[in-house]
Specification:
TIM Barrel, 3-stranded antiparallel beta sheet, 8-stranded parallel beta sheet, 17 strands, alpha/beta
């Protein structure tokens, strides 16, 4: 059905799908994908850890805007790395219109991740964004395109305006994107604007316009994107509720199981016959990480599968090694479990949390963390009484959230997913020299079946082994 790779490696978490993982998968001829979430903070923390291996410096040397690169390098690079008890420098949180340095960091961090993912081979790589995290979209996509990203994938929302933005960014023209603002009124201008030429230090030829794949969970969204998006949609990833990370909420009246997880039913299943009628390639995701599921997907007319959980625990992924080892141990013992938490994420989307000791899946650990919002990626934009755009987060201090017009019931059960995911990637913030942020492990239901990827007698496996096991379904 397409000339695209049959396996898409999921773009997971914050730096779990890092450049090393995407590079390894792409070298095998499949689609390696990096996570585009919070790449500015990830890059800056890597710089403050001393740029171990010199990889960021190597990418900076290939960045086309030299003055920008050197300015940011001088500000954030710490030779030899910061001391263990020192806090990471805080970045300015994203707003509707800037600030400029924030956009520069978005451009160069996305460039760095894609540049490194593409090194050493000629195959395309992709990047995954969450539509819900809107303020970095334009600058981030431009940075990835400067490095030659081949695919942009986007879920957790309805990215109707992304295709047109990619078209304009490819020719270095001003792109716009509508910011969702709670309480917005008719006549409000909530359009975000990004002009590449305000950041360019030299003329460049047109960039490659990447393929665009929305990640969808309903036929309605697929049809709407195919017919009404403001530019070309090249295919779809159809993600079921057993996939890891943020899930689409169930359709219809909310029902919970005995454990308090949202229940999904027939209305949440995508009609593949209707997908085939659209004539665009699609990949199936959510419990498709098995060779027989690849064969099944192809028999259903899919172009292939997207697999996340299996790659998340491979040696190349950016997840902390101790978390990977613990989850693999539990999978071998048959005790690995995922809980679909409808409250924990400030985004309002159900979030699949693996039950791992020492992480915020432990209610006691979560309850002891003071409410601090200093990364702010999952904040909600809202209209102030004065007509301005401001931001609030249901995981910030309750009194502050209420002072911004938030509802107290929306704060119940919330956690700081931003800081927790950063900790899972090995860059936990430390406060006052002693208070270390705890991590969170998000996985799909396939966590229970990780042992199928372990070679005999081994406790770890590589991305190559995952690909080989999956492709056995085509034999």
């Amino acid at each position: 059905m397409s000339n695209h790779p049959v396996i898409i490696q999921g773009g997971m978490g914050v730096a779990v799908s890092n450049w090393k993982l995407a590079n390894a998968v792409a070298k095998l001829g499949q689609l390696g994908v990096v996570s585009g979430t919070a790449l500015d903070v990830v890059m800056v923390r890597r710089l403050q850890d001393g740029d171990i291996g010199g990889h960021i410096r190597r990418a900076f040397d290939h960045f086309p805007f030299k003055k920008m690169a050197e300015r940011l390098w001088e500000k954030y690079f710490v030779p030899g790395g910061k001391t263990e008890s020192a806090s990471y420098l805080a970045l300015p949180m994203h707003t509707k219109d800037g600030p400029r340095e924030s956009r520069e960091l978005q451009i160069i961090s996305n460039f760095v991740e894609i540049f490194l993912a593409k090194e050493g081979h000629s195959n395309p790589v992709g990047i995954n964004y969450l539509e819900k995290i809107q303020t970095p979209h334009l600058a981030s996509a431009y940075g990835a395109m400067l490095a030659g990203v081949g695919y942009v994938l986007m879920g957790a929302g309805i990215p109707m305006r992304i295709p047109g933005a990619l078209d304009r960014l490819a020719v270095h023209e001003t792109a716009t994107y509508p910011l969702y603002v709670a309480g917005a009124q008719e006549g409000d201008d909530n359009t975000m604007t990004f002009d590449p030429r305000e950041y360019m230090e030299c003329d460049l030829p047109p960039l490659e316009r990447p393929y665009f794949f929305p990640i969808i969970a309903s036929n309605t969204l697929a049809i709407t994107m195919a017919r009404k998006a403001n530019g070309r949609v090249d295919g779809f990833v159809i993600e079921g509720p057993t996939a890891g990370g943020h899930n689409a909420p169930p359709r219809g009246k909310l029902q919970l199981n005995e454990a308090g997880e949202p229940l999904y039913g027939e209305r949440d299943k995508v009609d593949l016959a209707k997908m085939r009628e659209l004539g665009l390639p699609f990949w199936l995701a959510g419990s498709y990480g098995a060779p027989e599921k690849l064969r099944e997907a192809l028999d259903e007319g899919a172009a292939g599968i997207q697999v996340g959980t299996a790659f998340a625990y491979s040696e190349e992924s950016g997840m902390r090694a101790d978390f990977k080892a613990e989850v693999i141990r539990m999978a071998k013992e048959g005790t690995a479990r995922v809980f679909t938490d409808r409250l924990v994420s400030p985004s309002g989307f159900p979030f699949k949390v693996a039950q791992v000791a020492g992480t915020i899946s432990d209610a006691e650990i979560q309850s002891k963390r003071p409410r601090i919002c200093d990364l702010g990626y999952l904040r909600e934009a809202y209209r102030t009484p004065e007509g301005e755009v401001a931001f609030r987060c249901p995981s910030e201090p309750v009194s502050i959230y209420l002072s911004k017009g938030g509802k107290e019931e929306d704060t119940e059960g919330r956690a700081c997913i931003c800081n927790a995911l950063m900790a899972t990637a090995g860059h936990p913030q430390i406060r006052a020299g002693k208070h270390l942020e705890s991590g969170v492990v998000t996985s799909g239901d396939e966590i229970a079946n990780l042992a199928r990827f372990l070679p005999d007698g081994a406790d770890t496996y590589t991305a190559e082994h995952v690909v080989n096991v999956l492709l056995a379904g085509l034999a």
